[in-house]
Design goal:
This protein has one domain: Nuclear Transport Factor 2, Chain: A (Roll), CATH 3.10.450.50. The chain has helices at 3-9, 28-47, 50-54, 74-86, 158-165; strands at residues 22-24, 57-64, 71-72, 87-101, 104-117, 127-140, 143-153. It is α/β, with parallel strands linked by helices.
């Protein structure tokens, strides 16, 4: 269930490159705000700060993850806390496009993630997952917040997955 939260912005998003991302619409301030959200979440995932990621969600926002129950509102933060307490997560994202339409922002791209329990049993292997993600943010009085977030597996993300696996 938490996988999509990780996908949305990433746990050590070292693969994120804004230079190759297609940005459409939005004021310079809106674009800077979205880039700042991604950087904040990058740092939050790198340090295991699930609350910082959860704070980026609208209270009515929810996560639609492949093969997982719907997570919304306070459930998002609680799930992130449990995930970060139990796992180390590495993530690569390739942001394909960021598009603004008034008070909405759409982000889409591919992801690859690696999750390893912090206290693995002997022989525990990391869990790898890769695919597409789509995140819808809404501009609120308190800034841009995630409104909906979803992911799906896809072999189209295998090059990103191979890059992640090559990181060790």
């Amino acid at each position: 269930m938490i996988r999509i939260l990780i996908v949305a912005i990433g746990a050590v998003l070292s693969g994120t490159s804004f230079a190759e991302t297609e940005w459409r619409g939005g004021s310079p301030e809106d674009r800077a705000a979205i880039a700042a959200i991604i950087e904040t979440w990058k740092q939050a995932y790198a340090t295991g700060n699930g609350q910082a990621v959860a704070d980026g969600y609208d209270p009515k926002g929810y996560v639609m993850a492949e093969k997982a129950p719907l997570a919304y509102g306070p459930t998002v933060g609680a799930n992130l806390k449990k995930t970060f307490e139990a796992n180390t997560i590495d993530m690569l994202l390739d942001l394909k496009e960021v598009e603004f339409n008034g008070t909405w922002c759409f982000i889409q791209g591919t992801f690859a993630s690696k999750r390893l329990p912090k206290a693995p049993s002997p022989g525990t292997e990391p869990r790898f997952h890769a695919g597409f993600f789509f995140t819808l943010l809404r501009k609120t009085d308190s800034g841009w917040k995630v409104w909906r977030n979803m992911d799906t597996s896809s072999p189209d993300a295998n090059p990103l997955l191979e890059q992640l696996k090559g990181r060790g």
